[in-house]
Amino acid sequence: MIDHETAPRLRVAGLAKTYNTKRGAVPVIADLTFDVAAGEIVCIVGPSGIGKTTLLKCLTGLQSTTSGIASIDGKAIDGPPEEMALVFQEYTRSLMPWLTVEKNVRLPLKHLHLPAAEREERISSALVAVGLIGAETKYPWQLSGGMQQRVAIARAIAYRPEVLVMDEPFASVDAQTRFELEDLCLRVRAQFGMTIVIVTHDIDEAVYLSDRVVVLGERPARVTEIIDVNFGGARDQLTTRARPEFAELRTTIFELIRKAG
Ligand SMILES: Nc1ncnc2c1ncn2[C@@H]1O[C@H](COP(=O)(O)OP(=O)(O)OP(=O)(O)O)[C@@H](O)[C@H]1O
């Protein structure tokens, strides 16, 4: 499924970011280089405040880089690319409270000018994928946190981005929902072939979801190591997490982050 032969879907090359503040220049990212292949799931981990969100903002064109580039399919990213969708941790701020679940999911499709039948099919299949059938006419504030995050993910899926970028997407939901949403990510990748980049603080989550884990360290940030996770596409919350290799990878990544912090 993962195509390492052709150009990478995403490329981060020599990316650096310094914030200019009233108190002077704050270098946050020194030099990051890594690729993400089409159909790959890559998690980005690192100590708190290392610059993970800053990296995602550069990667999604929400802010400029100081030097180096991020590119998608060979095109430099200098604003939010049409081929990307973003899911943030704070679903309460990303959903429109005055719109129903169905209308929230429908919203970004307006820009795509799709034939009506395809538009409706995308909305309903996204709602099915996240398990929200029956909740279409509810408003976000009538739903639990986990359900709201499902709406945010359904909205991203319906858009069918080539690349789905998520910043701590499951940090605010309970453990059971978290597992369900992780499995949803794996299904979305299998079903739509999406490339997925996730920032997470949860090392187990990174190992469970990733084909590769990018570990950030040093301040300003550099890539400490890129860890391959060779579990294939089909994973299971019980059996995959019980594998001895899972524990080894967890320990390796934990030690790298502890040293980097
Ligand atoms: N707009 C900004 N202006 C100045 N400094 C900023 C700005 N945004 C972030 N920073 C600083 O950059 C550093 C990295 O922040 P960032 O949020 O990218 O890290 P993070 O790894 O995502 O953090 P966490 O793990 O806590 O979520 C922090 O020291 C933060 O204070």
Can you give a write-up of this model?
The mean pLDDT is 93. Helix 4 (116-129) runs antiparallel to helix 5. This protein has two domains: 1-83 and 163-261, 3-Layer(aba) Sandwich (Rossmann fold); 88-160, no CATH class. With 261 residues, the chain is of the alpha/beta class. It contains nine helices and ten strands. 35% of the residues lie in helices and 26% in strands. A ten-stranded mixed beta sheet has the order 5-4-1-2-10-9-3-8-7-6, sandwiched between helices. Strand 9 and strand 10 (221-228) form a beta hairpin. Bound molecules: adenosine-5'-triphosphate. Adenosine-5'-triphosphate (ATP) is lined by residues 19, 21, 26, 28, 46, 48-54.
Descriptive key words:
Rossmann fold, binds adenosine-5'-triphosphate, 35% helix, 9 helices, ten-stranded mixed sheet, alpha/beta, 2 domains, 261 residues
Task: Summarize the structure in short.
The protein has 261 residues and is an alpha/beta fold. 35% of the residues lie in helices and 26% in strands.
Global outline:
globular
Oligomer: single chain
The hetero compounds bound to this protein are: adenosine-5'-triphosphate
Order of helices and strands: EEEHEEEHHHHEHEHEEHH
Estimate what percentage of residues fall within beta strands. 25-35%
CATH class of the largest domain: Alpha Beta
| Structural class label | alpha/beta
Main beta sheet: 10 strands, mixed
Query: What's the end-to-end separation, in Å?
Result: 34 Å
GO molecular function, one term: ATP binding
Keywords: ATP-binding, Nucleotide-binding, Transport
Pfam families: ABC_tran
Domain ABC transporter: 10-243
